[in-house]
Design goal:
By secondary structure, the protein is of the alpha+beta class. It has a single domain, classed as 4-Layer Sandwich (Double-stranded beta-helix), CATH 3.60.130.10. It is 21% helix and 29% strand. The protein has 6 helices and 17 strands. The strands form 4 sheets. Strands 1, 2, 3, 4, 5, 6, 14 and 16 form an 8-stranded mixed β-sheet that branches. A 3-stranded antiparallel β-sheet has the order 13-7-15. A 3-stranded antiparallel β-sheet has the order 9-8-12. The chain is globular. Bound molecules: 2-oxoglutaric acid and fe (ii) ion. The site of 2-oxoglutaric acid has 11 residues, from strand 6, strand 15 and strand 16.
């Protein structure tokens, strides 16, 4: 197995490995790489849905998304689908999956099934590197703060997705809810400090005036969303990505109107997050 950085501050490419024929020793090497990089890319995988599920079950415990449709055959595989005629895509803004849960998802494994001819990249950001690069004064300011994460503004009755052509694809309107998490968490596996706020789900700072919280969050989001901490992955048939939801953000480019794109996603359960 070979592991090389994808870009200086974001992700790693794993080669000389077929996920569906991985030994237990390779699985352990992969665990270490996942803790270190938080974002792994794989090419040329022979990875049908049953192998996707088998890999997920070997790595951890599967958790099912409350809002996405699943494939007909496998209720643990979520469909990230955009039809030719559809305008809106799933995950088109920076976010991390399930941060609105009390125990957020550990990771997501995304597999390309149908790809547009061009476009449809997924962008990622490295939140451990972004934290390290914060000025000391900001690190001090963030100590002890907690943020509120929600999905109501996206998937609730008046959530923005409900007014788009994605609405038919989404369930769970009644399953919306919030959670609070420390703004800086200790990553459960790597022990690194990670900035755990994201533009999609983090709505406010607990106990602060809304506007004041918004100002701080926007400042942090702008700090992360720069070339030093971000990268863009171009999907090809056989590509798989596996990201850590505690230490990365992602967002799906919506630059392929008139073409279809279908991805399969399995999400793995995490553990409670502790303040740094
Ligand atoms: O389609 C993509 O590239 C990513 C969509 C997304 O946000 C997800 O699968 O969690
Ligand atoms: Fe996502």
């Amino acid at each position: 197995m070979k592991i090389v950085p994808f870009s200086p501050g974001c992700g790693a490419v794993v080669s000389d490995l077929q996920l569906s024929r991985m030994t237990d020793i390779e699985l352990n090497q992969l665990r270490a790489a996942f803790a270190e990089h938080g974002l792994l890319f794989f090419r040329d995988q022979d990875f049908p849905p049953h192998e996707h599920l088998r890999f997920a079950n070997r790595f951890g415990e599967i958790v099912v998304n409350k809002f996405f449709k699943t494939t007909a055959e496998h209720p643990q595989i979520a469909e990230v689908r955009k039809e030719k005629t559809q305008q809106t895509n799933i995950g088109g803004g920076w976010h991390t999956d399930h941060s609105y849960d009390d125990i957020p998802a550990m990771g997501s494994i995304l597999v390309a099934r149908t790809l547009p001819e061009t476009g449809g990249n997924t962008q990622f950001a490295n939140l451990a590197a972004a934290y390290d690069a914060l000025p000391e004064t900001m690190k001090k300011r963030l100590e002890g703060l907690r943020a509120v994460h929600s999905n109501t503004h996206l998937y609730g009755e008046n959530g923005i997705y409900r007014f788009t052509d994605l609405a038919d694809q989404l369930g769970g309107m009644d399953r919306v809810g919030d959670a609070t998490h420390p703004v800086v968490v200790i990553h459960p596996e790597s022990g690194r400090k990670v900035l755990y706020v994201n533009p999609g789900h983090t709505i406010s700072i607990e106990g602060w005036e809304f506007d004041q919280g918004r100002e701080l969050l926007d400042e942090l989001f702008a700090h992360v969303n720069t070339p030093a901490f971000t990268c863009s992955f171009n999907w090809l048939p056989g590509s798989v990505t596996f990201w850590d939801n505690r230490s990365t953000w992602h967002m799906a480019n919506n630059d392929y109107q008139g073409q279809a794109r279908l991805m399969h996603r399995i999400t793995l359960a995490g553990s409670p997050l502790k303040a740094a």
